[in-house]
Amino acid sequence: MTETFKKIPIFRPEVTDTGLPQELRISISELLKQGCFIRGRAVLDFENQLAQYLSTNNVIAVGNGTDALLAALMALELNKGDEVITPAFGYPAAAEMICLLGLTPVLVDVDWNTFNFDPVQLEEAISPKTKVILPLHLFGLPARMDDIMQIADKYQLTVIEDAAQSLGSDCVVDGKKRKSGTVASLGCTSFFPSKNLGAWGDGGAIFVNRDDPKLWNRLRSIVNHGQEKKYFHTMLGMNSRLDTVQAEVLCYYLSRFGDNCRRRVRIASRYTESFSQLESLELPLCAEVNSYVPNLYTVKVAKDRRDALQSFLNKKGIASQVYYPLPIHRQKAYAPFVRTPVKLTNSEQLPFCVLSLPCFPSMKEWEQEAVISAVKQFFRESHV
Ligand SMILES: *Cc1c(COP(=O)(O)O)cnc(C)c1O
């Protein structure tokens, strides 16, 4: 069987197996009758249900996760040249939006094991121009929000969490478990199909985590062309909304979200158990106080073996992916805008070592067995 199985993807949407679920057949047929594709009832329902799940004040659904970050930054009324501190290693959507607004991304290094903000470096990077800290919970591993919030308090900075990869993960702050994305005053997430809560297209949301009607109203306006009421535009905004079909889809997946998170956790635990004896493989580590819903299971392999492992897996029909091959300060588009006051040792090295393995709720047991045995075989045969 090892040589003949079908290709194992890095991600496969649940519908590929189940087809259109009955609940959605009904709700989407209803929606077709009403024809309310924009700002339909399901959008509000979804915002409320997600706010309830996260135990937060308000959720504003938007067109995608990048828009969520852009709108959150716009709502803070920053000035050109103000600095936003964000990690140098990770998906660059936040850094990109920071540049687009004429702000300066200040990049700091990440911890080797957790891929997240190093709080000591974070504090070193603060300057008089710093206004915002923008941590990222990479691969679903929660950043150390306890430390980050303390630093933010000390220097009176606003924090925006990029929770695009971490929906469902918990952070422990002041001894209490809080959902990632809801600890800072603002959180952002994405419903890109492969994210922990995925739609059938694009989607995103902003979490307004404090009782702050002014901020909430500003954000509502910003994502709706800066309108205070219809056809009265009081600030510069954008057009970003979740459409009603995606909201129906997300209401359905939110009802199954707990189960799907547990599946992700189970798959990651099984990898961790199976690979614990492999000295050549470094496994993702979660800061012990935090609980983690993996979006990707990302291992580290000695530099000279990583590409060999990837092509070995590929030959066996197993997809894997290098997230991410180039740190943000090395990207041509952002390099002219960034400030890098601290050493970015790990962010420089990680792109050569990381490899993400398939880890998604509809992954079958035999598929994971195949991945595990292929990885073990690689290290057995290459004697490293
Ligand atoms: C996916 C992702 C985004 C962007 O989300 P989109 O919905 O694709 O715009 C932002 N930040 C991180 C960390 C992401 O993984």
Describe the structure.
The protein has 384 residues and is α/β, with parallel strands linked by helices. It folds into two domains: 16-255, 3-Layer(aba) Sandwich (Aspartate Aminotransferase, domain 2), CATH 3.40.640.10; 258-382, Aspartate Aminotransferase, domain 1, CATH 3.90.1150. Helices cover 39% and strands 15% of the residues. It is built from 13 helices and 14 strands. The strands form four sheets. It has a seven-stranded mixed sheet with strand order 1-9-8-5-4-2-3, sandwiched between helices. It is globular and about 70 Å long. The model has no long low-confidence stretch (mean pLDDT 95). Pyridoxal-5'-phosphate is lined by residues 64-66, 90-91, 93, 136, 162, 164-165, 190, 192, 202, 204.
Number of helices: 13
CA-based shape? globular
Which strand order does the major sheet show?
Answer: 1-9-8-5-4-2-3
Approximate strand percentage: 15-25%
CATH architecture descriptor name of the largest domain: 3-Layer(aba) Sandwich
Please describe the topology of this protein.
Layout: H1 15-18, H2 22-34, H3 41-54, E1 58-62, H4 65-75, E2 83-87, H5 93-100, E3 104-108, H6 119-124, E4 130-133, H7 145-155, E5 158-162, E6 170-173, E7 176-179, E8 186-190, E9 204-208, H8 213-222, E10 227-229, E11 232-233, H9 244-255, H10 257-275, E12 281-282, E13 297-301, H11 303-315, H12 345-353, E14 354-357, H13 365-382
Parallel strand pairs: 2-3, 2-4, 4-5, 5-8
Antiparallel strand pairs: 1-9, 6-7, 8-9, 10-11, 12-13, 13-14
Bound molecules: pyridoxal-5'-phosphate.
